[in-house]
Amino acid sequence: MKEMSAKEARANLSSLLKRVEEGGEVVLLRRGKRIARLVPAEIKQGRLPTLKEFRASIRVKGESLSMGVIKGREKERF
């Protein structure tokens, strides 16, 4: 991560943008204090699963909730 003053950043804006575009980060300073951080706008991530794929990946252990409710009702009746 590179740090530079706002004045330097103004003078080298195109090179800063290129660095950020390539995945780098730049911290801008004003009077020695951090005031901003330039980061890439978008980080490419893998595809998110569809709802169908997500549901298929979840395995319920034990008895289902509906079966537990049915059994509980039967016990209370008799």
Question: What key attributes describe this structure?
Answer:
YefM-like fold; alpha+beta; about 80 residues; 4 helices; three-stranded mixed β-sheet
Describe this structure in words.
With 78 residues, this protein is of the alpha+beta class. It has a domain at 2-38: 3-Layer(aba) Sandwich (YefM-like fold), CATH 3.40.1620. The protein is 45% helix and 19% strand. The protein has four helices and three strands; from the N terminus they run E-H-H-E-E-H-H. The protein has a three-stranded mixed beta sheet with strand order 1-2-3. The relative contact order is 0.12.
Summarize the structure.
This protein has 78 residues and is an alpha+beta fold. The protein is built from four helices and three strands, in the order βααββαα. β2 and β3 (33-38) form a beta hairpin.
Question: What would you report as the Rg, rounded to the nearest angstrom?
Answer: 28 Å
Quote the beta fraction.
Answer: 15-25%
CATH topology-level fold name of the domain at 2-38: YefM-like fold
**What's the rounded overall pLDDT mean?**
87
The protein's oligomeric status is single chain
Largest sheet: 3 strands, mixed
Helix content: 40-55%
Number of helices: 4
The CATH class of the domain at 2-38 turns out to be Alpha Beta
N to C succession of SSEs: EHHEEHH
Q: How far apart lie the N and C ends?
A: 71 Å
Compute the number of strand runs. Answer: 3
Which spans of ≥5 residues are poorly predicted at pLDDT below 50? none
CATH architecture of the domain at 2-38: 3-Layer(aba) Sandwich
Coarse structural class: alpha+beta
State the shape. Answer: rod-shaped
